[in-house]
Amino acid sequence: MDYLLLLSGFVLLILGGHWLLKAAVGLSLRLMIPRIIIGMTVVSFATSAPELIVSLNSALEGHADIALGNVIGSNIANLGLVLGIVTILTTIGVEKSFYTTDWPVMMIASIMLYVFIAFDGVLERYEGVILLVSLIVFLVYLLKFQEKAVVVDEVVVQKEMSISVILIFLVLGGIGLWSGSELLIKGAVNLANDFGVSERVIGVTIISIGTSIPELAASIIAIIKKEKAISLGNLIGSNIFNILAVLGITSIITPITVQDDHLLTSDIMWMLVLALMVLPLVFLPVKMKLSWKEGLILLGFYVVFVALTI
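^ thats the sequence. predicted structure below, dont judge the formating
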């Protein structure tokens, strides 16, 4: 039954996120918002909606370790699992914006998160405000100085929808996301109790893998169809949004208090080390390319992380 709750939760989160994305993009296009802005803000926030709702709902229900573990685990999964599998399947080129903008901002966001929670174990409201404001500053910087480096996701290019259809997708998306998060959290907490493990373990493994599946599926489909370039920037952007938007908004609504110290002494350290690892891998052995060799290293890192965590 618990596995059914988890599976149902994942399915509803994926569907809810997809419906919300279609509604958000459709509404933005009707409002004549420039596509570059839609791609950087609307699409980015909508694709982070599953992580946001799961973390927010978890924190509100008193499961702070799931809220924080979901983000830390998702960031590790994005670079270790998703990027690892993608680069094993195909070699990807890395844009210059990786080392001039994307990676430095990801590292700054990751270090900020560590500093905010490492000493008192609490992500306070004012710290959430700092995270969210940092995201806004980052987006303004991209729009003003790095517009050419931003790749607008193809999902922005869609047929115009009527207001009634947009509202239907908006309602379905909201219902799917919230009900999916409820089922997912209930199943995760039950599994933690059944197996005698902490909620933090479930958060950084099962839930984080589940919320990273859409990125992995989209990347594999893109490889098969050869429809668009696989971008390292997209995954790094997801990590930035997870910290600055998901944890920023969640902690503004309700402060997040760490229950399991392993989140501070182990998990976030794995996240920081993996983020650091990506930089030399991009330059060695072949500059500005990631191939199956780097993919094996990243995937191996992730497998070791999961094995030591469970």
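The beta strands are 92-93, 122-123, 256-257, 289-290.
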